[in-house]
Amino acid sequence: MDCFVAAHQVGAQGRVVGVDMTDPQRTKAERLASSAGFRHVSFLKGYIENVPAPDGGFDVVMSNGVINLSPEKGQVFREAARLLRPGGRLAISDIITEKPLTQAIVCDVTLWASCIGGAAQRQTFHHEIESAGLRILSVKENPEYNFLSESAQWATGEFGVKSVSILATKPS
Ligand SMILES: C[S@@+](CC[C@H](N)C(=O)[O-])C[C@H]1O[C@@H](n2cnc3c(N)ncnc32)[C@H](O)[C@@H]1O
C-alpha cells in the first residue's frame, strides 16, 4: 500500500522499490501495481535486515508496520542507513512500547502476529535508530491507531503499546 502512495509522490520520473520476504505479498503487490499502471514501481524478494539493493541508492526509506516483526531491529536500521544517500530520510510508522514487555508476551506468537510481541521499548527503538548513524527529526504518536483483539487491547493499557511515526535523516 505504502509503495503506491509513494508512487504518486515521486511521479513517473521517480522510482519506488518495495521489499517483502513472502511470495504471496509480492505477487499481490505486483498485480496491483500492474493493474494501476505503475511502471515505476517494482518489488524485491528479501528481508529488511538484508535488502538486495545498492548502498546509497535511495532518497527515502519507508516502512509501515514491519520493523516490530523483526527480532533484529538494530540491523534493520543499519540497513536503512546503508541504503540511504547522505541527506536521505527514513520515514516509518510502527509499534513501540513505553514499558518493557514480559517474557510471556514476547514469547506469545499471537501477540507477535498482532504487532505487539515484537514491539521495542521507546528508548531502545530510538537508540537503535541513532546508533545506526541516523538522526531523529520528529516523533509523532498516532492515537487513532487501535488494536482489535482483546489481548492486544490489554497489552496496550498495561504496557503503553502504541503506534508512532518517526522521521529521521542520514546526515550529509
Ligand atoms: C503488517 S504487514 C505490512 C504491510 C505494508 N506496510 C503494506 O502497506 O502493505 C507486514 C509485512 O511484512 C513482511 N515482513 C515481515 N517481516 C519481514 C522481514 N524481516 N523482511 C521482509 N519482510 C517482512 C510480511 O511478509 C508482511 O507482508
Q: Which superfamily, in CATH terms, is the homologous superfamily of the largest domain?
A: Vaccinia Virus protein VP39
Helix content: 25-40%
What's the CATH architecture of the largest domain?
3-Layer(aba) Sandwich
**Radius of gyration, rounded?**
16 Å
Q: Which regions contain 5 or more consecutive residues with pLDDT less than 50?
A: none
N- and C-termini, Cα separation: 30 Å
Distinct ligands: S-adenosylmethionine
User: What's the pLDDT, averaged over the residues?
Assistant: 95
Major sheet attributes: 5 strands, mixed
Describe the protein.
The chain is an alpha/beta fold and 172 residues long. It folds into two domains: 46 residues, no CATH class; 115 residues, Rossmann fold (3-Layer(aba) Sandwich). The protein contains seven helices and seven strands. The strands form two sheets. Strands 3, 4, 5, 6 and 7 form a five-stranded mixed β-sheet that branches. Strands 1-2 form a two-stranded parallel sheet. The longest helix has 13 residues. The mean pLDDT is 95. It binds S-adenosylmethionine (SAM). S-adenosylmethionine binds next to strand 1.
Topology:
Elements: H1 2-10, E1 16-20, H2 23-35, E2 41-45, E3 58-64, H3 73-83, E4 84-97, H4 103-106, H5 109-113, E5 120-121, H6 122-131, E6 135-141, H7 150-159, E7 161-169
Bound molecules: S-adenosylmethionine.
Residues 1-2, 19-22, 25, 47-49, 64-66, 69-70 line the site of S-adenosylmethionine.
